[in-house]
Design the sequence.
């Protein structure tokens, strides 16, 4: 164990709480990045990081210094993140989301940054997409090995300490994981080390502003009761053109607009909107890739998470989310996004 860490830990054991702050400051970014690479959710990654540090403080009396402090800390992070992932999976809903291509949803073309040609931007987005798809093909065990080795830079022995598995298992899993990535990526395997920038939240995203919004619809088999509160009717040719696709997706014939929302905020800024049935819709734009905005969506009713999911939405490619039952049907939420809010202001949803 590094001598500076050892000295701080001894002070912590002696009851000096202030001595724990330098340890938190030193490792907080790596702890958050590790949690994010497991969960792919910024907000939950910070929650996991906080809980991991609390657990580490509580468990310091049992730390014997037989391994580096950060490998012991990473083990706690992985355990907390795994618990959070299992909890999140358990509350997921079967209806899920589906990306719905609808060319007429937004007629405005995306403006590329001045320094990037359309061909270069498209090529970069395709490379990132291929890397993400390749990583998604790995099992959780193999993905963790790649993250710890090629992103965090841990040695075989340190990975074995973190995951509490034999070093030979680490070597075998890493070999198999890289073999699968090589088969999936081919020449792009050389970009694997660039995943630090891809998987850890890029600094540029934190300042980027995106425009997005949601439509809350009630899907029913027949026109809803006249007592139901609905949004003021407004002409919406694109939604009308989209209804056949909605009917195909949900099986319902009638769609009544209940709420319409829109926001233009920096990446990482959560929006909360009321939804009928004493519910709250949370939408968090997480990052941007090309013209696609990656978002975290949660529909809550009191303390219950009725829908928790990650979606991708863009102009011309909104996401449709099937929600819980309401009145005589179910709630359907359409989320649209515009990664380039400087596009024509004639666009109105």
Sequence:
């Amino acid at each position: 164990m590094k001598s500076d860490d050892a000295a701080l830990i001894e002070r912590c054991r002696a009851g000096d709480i202030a001595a724990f702050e330098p340890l938190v400051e030193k490792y907080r970014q790596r702890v958050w990045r590790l949690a994010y690479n497991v969960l792919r959710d910024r907000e939950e990654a910070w929650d996991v990081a906080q809980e991991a540090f609390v657990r580490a403080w509580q468990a310091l009396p049992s730390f014997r210094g037989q391994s580096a402090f950060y490998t012991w800390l990473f083990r706690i992070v992985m355990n907390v993140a795994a618990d959070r992932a299992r909890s999140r999976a358990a509350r997921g809903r079967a209806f899920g989301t589906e990306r719905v291509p609808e060319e007429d949803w937004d007629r405005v073309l995306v403006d590329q940054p001045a320094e990037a040609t359309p061909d270069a931007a498209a090529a970069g987005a395709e490379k990132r997409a291929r890397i993400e798809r390749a990583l998604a093909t790995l099992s959780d065990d193999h993905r963790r090995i790649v993250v710890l080795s090629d992103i965090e830079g841990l040695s075989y022995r340190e990975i074995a300490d973190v995951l509490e598995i034999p070093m030979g298992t680490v070597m075998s899993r890493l070999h198999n994981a890289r073999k699968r990535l090589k088969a999936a990526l081919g020449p792009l395997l050389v970009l694997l080390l660039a995943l630090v920038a891809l998987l850890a939240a890029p600094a540029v995203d934190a300042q980027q502003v995106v425009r997005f919004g949601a439509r809350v619809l009630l899907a029913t088999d027949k026109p809803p009761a006249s007592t139901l509160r609905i949004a003021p009717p407004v002409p919406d040719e694109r939604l009308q053109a989209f209804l056949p696709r909605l009917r195909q997706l949900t099986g319902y014939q009638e769609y009544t607009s209940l709420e319409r929302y829109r926001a233009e905020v920096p990446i990482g800024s959560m929006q909360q909107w009321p939804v009928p049935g004493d519910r709250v819709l949370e939408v968090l734009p997480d990052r941007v890739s090309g013209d696609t905005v990656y978002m975290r969506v949660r529909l809550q009713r009191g303390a219950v998470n009725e829908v928790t999911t990650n979606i991708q939405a863009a102009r011309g490619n909104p996401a449709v989310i099937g929600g819980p039952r309401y009145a005589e049907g179910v709630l359907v939420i359409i989320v649209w996004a515009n990664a380039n809010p400087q596009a024509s202001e004639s666009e109105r949803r």
Summary: The two ends are 58 Å apart (CA to CA).
